[in-house]
Design goal:
Blueprint (H helix, E strand, L loop, with lengths): L1 H38 L6 H7 L4 H4 L7 H40 L6 H23 L10 H28 L8 H23 L1
Length: 206
């Protein structure tokens, strides 16, 4: 009888220890999940999520796990990328202005500038899409921005859709710009791209 009672007590103790261990594991998992949520913002761009999301490329490959140390390193990378994004943005804007001046002279009949216009156009295109990629693929911030800052970023993104569409249309029509049928559309697309790009930079600056 005593052995039977001791056996029951042993099972009870083991069961309690098992439940306690399970509770500890559950608390640990919840804590890790909370940490993961805290270390990543609630909202990310699709391009950021593909690389830096919970199941992004850098997470599943183990190149950059979701830890405080990794996120600290990512925020430093983000800062460098966004600084480069801003500087290249100014460079691209300057190139667009130069393109506008050359383009206007071409429209006025100075065809000696065709080669220079095309060369500068290629440089602006490279600079533009490099600028865009630095923002699209930068690591996400730790937390989402305040409401006021978020509104500014939202307008910056809306304008990005507009100037990217204008930029792509300009490039598509570039080879057809010599045709009088396509020339007005090429010009309108170029002005749209420039206007939206310049406005997006003004919005983000203030």
């Amino acid at each position: 009888m005593k052995h039977f009672i001791l056996l029951i007590l042993l099972f009870v103790c083991v069961g309690q220890a098992s439940f306690a261990q399970q509770d500890s594991l559950l608390l640990l998992l919840e804590k890790e999940q909370d940490t993961t949520v805290t270390l990543l913002p609630k909202r990310m761009m699709v391009t950021q999520s593909l690389l830096w999301g919970r199941k992004g490329l850098f997470r599943v490959t183990g190149l950059s796990p979701i830890t405080e140390k990794s996120r600290t390193r990512e925020l430093k990378i983000r800062r460098r990328m966004l600084i480069a994004h801003q500087l290249l943005g100014y460079l691209t804007l300057g190139g667009m202005i130069g393109q506008g001046i050359l383009g206007q002279r071409l429209y006025n009949g100075d065809f000696s500038l065709i080669k220079a216009h095309k060369t500068l156009g290629n440089a602006v295109s490279i600079s533009y899409f490099t600028t865009a990629s630095l923002s699209l693929f930068a690591p996400p911030p730790m937390l989402n921005r305040s409401k006021q800052k978020r509104n500014t970023i939202r307008w910056h993104k809306y304008l990005a859709f507009l100037h990217m569409g204008g930029m792509i249309t300009t490039l598509v029509l570039a080879d057809k710009a010599s045709d009088s049928r396509y020339k007005p559309y090429h010009r309108a697309a170029a002005f749209t791209a420039f206007g939206a790009f310049a406005t997006s930079m003004i919005v983000i600056a203030f």
